[in-house]
Amino acid sequence: MAEQTESESRKLLRRLRDSLAEDSAGQARLDHITEIIAEEMRTEVCSIYLFRDADTLELCATEGLNPDSVHQTRMRLGEGLVGRAAKTGQVINEADAPSAKGFRYMPETGEEVFSAFCGVPIQRLGNGLGVLVVQSREARAFSDDEVYALEVVAMVLAEMTELGAFVGEGEALRARHTNPMLFRGGSGQEGVAEGHVYLHEPRVVVTNPVADDPVAESERLNAAVNTLRVSVDDMLKSVGQDPVDKDQREVLEAYRMFANSRSWMRRMEEDIVAGLSAEAAVEKEQSTARRRLGKSSDSYLRERLQDLDDLSNRLLRILTGQGTNPGADLPDDAILVARNIGPAELLDYGRGKLRGIVLEQGSVGSHAAIVARAWAIPLIVHAGDQITSEALNGDLLLVDGDQGLAHLRPDDSIVSAFRDKIAMQAEAQERYSNIRTLPATSQDGITVALNMNAGLIAELPSLENSGAEGVGLFRTELQFLARARVPRRAELAGIYSRVLDAAGGKPVVFRTLDIGSDKVLPYMKREDEPNPALGWRAIRVGLDKRGVMRMQLQALIRAAKGRPLTVMFPFVAQFEEFKAARQHVFDELDREKKLGHVLPEKVEIGAMLETPSLAFAPRQFFEMADFISIGGNDLKQFFFAADRENERVRRRYDTLNVSFLTFLEQIVQRCNETETPVSFCGEDAGRPIEAMCFAAMGLRSLSMRPASVGPVKHLIRRVDLSAARDMIHEASKSGEQSVRGHVMEWLRGQGPS
Ligand code: PEP
Ligand code: MG
């Protein structure tokens, strides 16, 4: 960067800072800033456009354009050169703007006399806040140094906007972080909760973007980067040399590479020379990287961006002296808000004070969702990319996990309606507690066994509270996902044994490790599979990497300590796979016996039916399996070829679709022919109407989240299942795709609930 521009940009920043320090109102400040920039940049025009809403930009201050157009001139995102700079997040530098593609003439501003145009997005960590524009009569392109100076200024403006420095009259200038906002996402776990925001990775608000002493700032930056390097080295040391830790080591090696990157350092040093503080320099480079890489379709680059994000955040926390110990100051009614979160981080927070979780990304089947479900706290996924930047720690947040809605800083009327809803749900749960010890027996005397799904020891108390008969599905992934390395056999045996202890003699079906697809172990190399849900997962991994499967089976046998043991294999697609996996159980039983360990009193080995192919397996498969459990989440996605993780398609096909119900009925028939016990353990089993229809189709065992046991039991006890079956068969002939309408109508005719 040229020596002259260096000092100019420093001078410009200093003038800006001084003007911000003056005690003036928001609009006056903005006006003054445009004046200073135009003067220092020697341009006739300087204007600041800010977002009025997500799609509209408003001219909020100008030096050089018609002052009457301030707060009058608006444009949509993508419209004109200003709209394009905002939309693309890129600088637009045109020597002859009126003849540039997309130029929009705005007569009220009087700008037709200006040729050169440079629009620089004002953005904070990838979130657009507005556009800074300079224009001049002379047709000339702005130099790289001038554009750089404008970017530095835009960065400071972004920080000041964030701090509410321009709050004043006019809606576009309304303080951020004060108004109510509604975020719509998907439901990751039902339930409603009221609480206060706790940001998983709180943004560090840079209060001092401009600094006077570049030498001191550079020293601060260097000291912080050194601390960062030491902490990455420490993390690397703690990982150890075990081959199973190889992948985690690779990630940390990448971190170390970034932390030692000279070009990263050089760019930040340049920003400091230009007048930014160390914090602002870190943030500017983070923003630039997000802008460059954020939209990349290359997953490798996007992952590197996440590394850089993480390192930048750590660096900011070091620079601002903020603790790196998340969760230490968690409020008692915390709603965790994050872009995304891994299971280990979530488990670190603990269930105790968390009332709900809202994720900008995440997905229904993600690890975080599994933990949230295990804890039975409402979770919203795909809440859009604004909530982490809009919400502040301590803001009131209402989470409606049923509808996938998050109300941030809600109005009183919303709060009171929401509290009514919470009270109603509590009342309904109270009603179900009255039938807790009664069986789910229908009016015509058919009894359906209701079990619960679990994945953590902490959930076992629900066995008692919910009235479930046993654990129909114990997912064993969490103990693997939540660690930095493969858990040891003794550790697992201890956990499984405590699960059996906590179940107090009630049956527990342990499902062997179901990883792959979206459940990626942090220490296992992620294979770049084009279709991970159809890829190397679950039993396929278990059969190929026998060490882990055998170790898990040994842990289960030892955990049983002579008690009955029930094992189930996930994602079996053909008989051979089940046979091979079952043989492993026998081999391990033999081995354990030889080693002198006590064997389980009885061992039952079952398969999950999650792929349509298994429904058509040879009869011998059904004879061999001690039981079958229909994994409806996966089965439905493969039956309809609709990704359960994809918000666009996952709700497209109704579970009560005639084809799917007919298919389930056929599976039940095949199981009945060989007298193989069959149950259903996907999420749909916890939805009362779906559960009733499954029971009507012949299923006599369902496994669901504990909170669903009451509502499902309540409905089954109310109805005549034989009549329900006849009604569904009749409705199936109507030619309609789904029988839901008929079922609802029939239920209305069954009298009050
Ligand atoms: C299922 O697929 O229905 C199931 C219970 O397994 P998971 O949701 O863990 O894939
Ligand atoms: Mg499954």
Explain what you see.
Helix 1 (3-21) packs parallel to helix 4, helix 5 (214-239) packs antiparallel against helix 6 and helix 8 runs antiparallel to helix 9. The protein has 27 helices and 23 strands. Residues 169-174 have low confidence and may be disordered. Helices cover 45% and strands 17% of the residues. It is elongated and about 90 Å long. Strands 15, 16, 17, 18, 19, 20, 21, 22 and 23 form a nine-stranded mixed sheet that branches. With 753 residues, the protein is an alpha/beta fold. It has four domains: 3-173, Beta-Lactamase (2-Layer Sandwich); 181-201 and 330-425, Glucose Oxidase, domain 1 (3-Layer(bba) Sandwich), CATH 3.50.30.10; 214-320, Enzyme I, Chain A, domain 2; 445-723, Alpha-Beta Barrel (TIM Barrel), CATH 3.20.20. Bound molecules: phosphoenolpyruvate and magnesium ion. The site of phosphoenolpyruvate (PEP) has 10 residues, from strand 17 and helix 22.
The beta-strand count equals 23
The overall pLDDT average reads 87
CATH superfamily of the largest domain: Phosphoenolpyruvate-binding domains
- As for the CATH topology of the largest domain, it is TIM Barrel
Low-confidence stretches: 169-174
The CATH architecture of the largest domain:
Alpha-Beta Barrel
Helix content: 40-55%
Task: Outline the fold blueprint.
Blueprint (H helix, E strand, L loop, with lengths): L2 H19 L4 H16 L3 E9 L2 E8 L10 E3 L3 H9 L3 E3 L21 E9 L2 E10 L7 H19 L18 E4 L1 E4 L2 E8 L14 H26 L6 H14 L2 H12 L4 H16 L5 H21 L14 E5 L4 H7 L4 E6 L7 H9 L3 E3 L5 H4 L5 E5 L4 E4 L3 H22 L6 E2 L5 E8 L6 H6 L4 E5 L1 H5 L7 H15 L4 E4 L26 H7 L1 H15 L4 E8 L2 H20 L8 E7 L2 H4 L3 H6 L2 E4 L1 H8 L18 H16 L4 E3 L7 H9 L4 E4 L1 H13 L2 H12 L7 H9 L5
Parallel strand pairs: 9-10, 10-11, 11-12, 16-17, 16-23, 17-18, 18-19, 19-20, 20-21, 21-22
Antiparallel strand pairs: 1-2, 1-6, 2-3, 4-5, 5-6, 7-14, 8-12, 9-13, 13-14, 15-16
The protein binds phosphoenolpyruvate (PEP) and magnesium ion.
